Amino acid sequence: MPVQTDILIIGGGLAGLTAALHLQQAGIEVVLVEKDPYPHHKVCGEYISNEVLPYLKWLNADPSVLHPSVISKMQFSTVSGRSIAARLPMGGFGVSRYQLDHFLYQKFLAKGGVVIQDTVSSVVFEKDNFLVLTQSETQYTARQVIGAYGKRSSIDLKLKRKFIQQKSPFLAVKAHYKGEFEDELVALHNFKGGYCGASKIEDQKINICYLANYETFKIHKNITAYQENVLYQNKHLKSIFEKSELLFDAPITISQLSFGVREAVIDHILMIGDTAALIHPLCGNGMAMAIHSAGICSELLLLFLKGEIPDRTSMEKRYIICWNQHFKSRLLMGNTLSALFEKEYLTEKLLGGMVRLPFILPLIIKKTHGHSLTVPK
Q1: Range of the domain at 294
Q2: CA angle at residue 18 from 274 to 52, to 5 degrees?
Q3: What CATH number does the domain containing 281 carry?
Q4: Entry's PANTHER family (predicted)?
Q5: Residue 370 lies in a domain
Q6: Phi-psi region at 94: left, alpha or beta (left = phi > 0; alpha = psi -120 to 50)
Q7: CB within 8 A of 375, min separation 6: which ones?
C-alpha cells in the first residue's frame, strides 16, 4: 500500500526545507524526499539578502545562531581591474549551504518532520491526487507535490521541460577558503567568459563561486590552470586567490546550468526555488528567492487545503501570477546583465557609466532584490 501524506516535497535544499517548515507549522503532514545525506556542500554564492530575515524568524529558524557574516556593501570590477563599490540598501548575511540546510533540516526533524533519503523516479497526477514512486520502489500518495529538487534532475526529462533538452554553455565552480578578504563585502568580479563572486560566511571562511563559459574552460587542463590563466587577468581576483588557502580537497562543480524560462507549475506540480527558475549569480540573490518562493507557495497551498481557494486550477493560476509579480523582473535583470558582461567592451562602458553616475549601481541592486517579506498571519 502507498504511504499517504498531505504534501510531498521533492528535494530538501533551501526552498524545500523552508516550505516543509512553513506547512508543518500550520499542522499539515509533510514528507520530504532528499537524495543526499545531510550535511553537504552545494555550488552556491552563499549570500542572502536581509529581506527574508523576518520570515525565517517567524519560522523559528533565525540563522543568527549560525554566526553568519554581516554583509553591507558590494564591489564590482571589470576584466581590466576597474571597480566601483556601493552600500547594499537592505544589507544581507553570508552563511554556507552546508550549515544552513542542515540547520533547517534539524528544525524540521525536531518537530516531527519526515525526511526520506531516496530519489524520486516518477510523479503521476490522477483523480486529483499524486502518485509518487522512488528508486527504492516505495510509493506515496499526496494531495500536492512540490518540486524543490534544484537546478536540474531526471524528473525534468520525464516532465518534458524544454530547458532540460537544451545544451547550456555554463559551468559553475565553488570552494571555501581561508585568507584575507574585507569584512562586510560581497564582491563580483568579471573575467573573460564569466564572473566570480566572493564574500565571507561563518567562521571567517571565504566563499568563492564563479560561473564560466565551458568553451573557454575546457581548453585548460584543470581548474587551477583555468583560474591562473583566465581569472587572474582581473587583478582583484588574482589578489583574492593568491592571499587565500583552499579548504576543500578540491573545488566542487556543476555543469549544464540553464538560465532560460522555466515553468512555475507543470503537470500540477508547484515548482519553487531553482526548480522554478535559476537566477543568474550576477543578481546575487538566489537564496533569498528560494526562501521567498517557498513562502508564497506554502501560503497559497494552505488556502487551497482550507477551501479558501476553491479549486486546484485557481490555486495554480494564483501561484503563477504571484511568481511573476515577485521574480520575473529580477530574472530579466539577471539575464540582461549576463548578456552585457559577456561582452568586455560593454562591461567597461557600463562601469564607466556607473562611475559618472554613482546612483546606477544601487538602482541595479534594488532591481535584483525584493522588499522585506511580509510575515504570514
Answers
A1: 3-41+91-166+259-364
A2: 85
A3: 3.50.50.60
A4: CONDITIONED MEDIUM FACTOR RECEPTOR 1 (PTHR42685:SF22), GERANYLGERANYL DIPHOSPHATE REDUCTASE (PTHR42685)
A5: no
A6: beta
A7: 54, 55, 58
